[in-house]
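Narrative of accomplishments. A recurring question from our advisory board has been how the design workflow behaves on a single, concrete structure rather than in aggregate. To address it, we present the structure tokens for one chain from the evaluation set, followed by the sequence designed for it. No filtering or post-editing was applied between the two.
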């Protein structure tokens, strides 16, 4: 796997302000001679870029622009979702899944007619039997239009472990803000954004980017299974609708409310916590783990809102008695824990019933459990007004 940039021994951080003198290296197919150059990104926040002899593009490393959606800076690898110390405390499955970049994005401003993207993937497995490569391993580009609304532009379709593509062309004139979402079920080692040499790219200084994030903790559904592209996971949809950062701590098959995860969540300082783990735990585990998790969060953050979300109804529960029983028993245990917390005087809790999370006709899952894009849109429609109320924000149209 190659990188457009030199490797650095610097400890990973959320934002690096580099010097402006860099060495360019050779891209595949480019002339064999690289040259020293001075490159300047315009705006209040300069971003280092590299150019290649004979190429019309300048490339910007996402590490230099800054990554949104990562809760910790003390990580082993820049795109990890958990801090290095977690390797010794969390289950192995959680640690492995934390290497996947779900919820992370690059937020930037650019005045450019086209945008190119290079991304290097950690795993050669680009897709799953029930989830396409565009969601598992692709990237997804959104732009803020002249009305201030986020609108989808294009997705990057992965065909190999390293991918370089022009993701958008014929962009309208003018500077605007962009979001580039990273893969949901694969990890990335390198992400670069390329623009024409006479175009400009800067870090975004929007008010939205400065808001406290919402932390989403949960299962494969939270991680984004089985969205067709990264921007369609419901946490990502809600991030755009609420116009604030999100941190996606969904772990496929492994969102189980362990106290080790609760303690890690308590280290963050979000605007709100969303806890949605019932699909991965049974009623006994719900009873044992809900109150300790909430207690850990409350000890660290006495007033931060906490939203407890039930599991969605299996879409084939009418035909499978065991699945209906699983829904009913885990929900009863969750509701009982919630009521005990209220009785104990815990404030700032919101409880969301699961029956409403999927459509009434249940035509919005891939396999009876994981939502399609339609299912994720419905999830977002249900959760948005509840989140706004918990955050103290006015009600708003569900349009993203």
């Amino acid at each position: 796997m190659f990188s457009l940039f030199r490797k650095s021994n610097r400890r990973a951080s959320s934002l690096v302000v580099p010097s402006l003198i860099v060495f360019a290296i050779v891209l595949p197919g480019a002339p064999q001679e690289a040259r020293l150059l001075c490159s300047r990104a315009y705006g209040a926040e300069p971003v280092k870029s590299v150019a290649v002899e004979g190429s019309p593009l300048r490339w910007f490393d996402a590490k230099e622009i800054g990554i949104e959606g990562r809760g910790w800076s003390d990580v082993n690898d820049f795109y990890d979702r958990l801090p290095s110390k977690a390797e010794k405390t969390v289950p192995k499955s959680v640690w492995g899944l934390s290497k996947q970049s779900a919820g992370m994005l690059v937020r930037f401003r650019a005045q450019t007619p086209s945008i190119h993207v290079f991304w290097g993937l950690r795993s050669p497995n680009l897709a799953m039997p029930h989830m396409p490569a565009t969601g598992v391993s692709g990237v997804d580009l959104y732009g803020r239009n002249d009305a201030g609304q986020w609108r989808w532009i294009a997705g990057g379709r992965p065909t190999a472990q390293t991918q370089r593509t022009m993701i958008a062309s014929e962009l309208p004139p003018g500077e605007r803000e962009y979001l580039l979402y990273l893969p949901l079920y694969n990890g990335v080692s390198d992400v670069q954004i390329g623009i024409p040499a006479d175009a400009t790219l800067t870090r975004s200084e929007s008010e939205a980017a400065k808001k406290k994030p919402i932390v989403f903790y949960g299962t494969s559904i939270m991680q984004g299974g089985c969205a067709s592209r990264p921007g369609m996971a419901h946490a990502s949809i809600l991030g755009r609708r609420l116009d604030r950062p999100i941190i996606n701590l969904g772990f496929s098959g492994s969102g189980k409310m362990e106290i080790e995860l609760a303690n890690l969540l308590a280290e963050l300082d979000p605007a709100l916590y969303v806890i949605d783990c019932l699909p991965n735990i049974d009623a006994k585990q719900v009873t044992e783990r809900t109150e300790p998790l909430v207690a850990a969060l409350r000890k660290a953050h006495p007033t931060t809102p906490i939203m407890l979300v039930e599991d969605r109804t299996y879409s084939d529960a009418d035909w499978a008695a065991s699945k209906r029983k699983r829904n009913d028993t885990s929900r009863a245990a969750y509701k009982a824990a919630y009521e005990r917390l209220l009785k104990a005087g815990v404030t700032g809790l919101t409880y969301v019933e699961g029956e409403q999370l999927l459509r009434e006709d249940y035509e919005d899952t891939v396999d009876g459990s994981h939502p399609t894009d339609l299912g994720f849109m419905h999830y977002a429609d249900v959760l948005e007004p509840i989140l706004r109320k918990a955050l103290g924000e006015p009600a708003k149209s569900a349009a993203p």
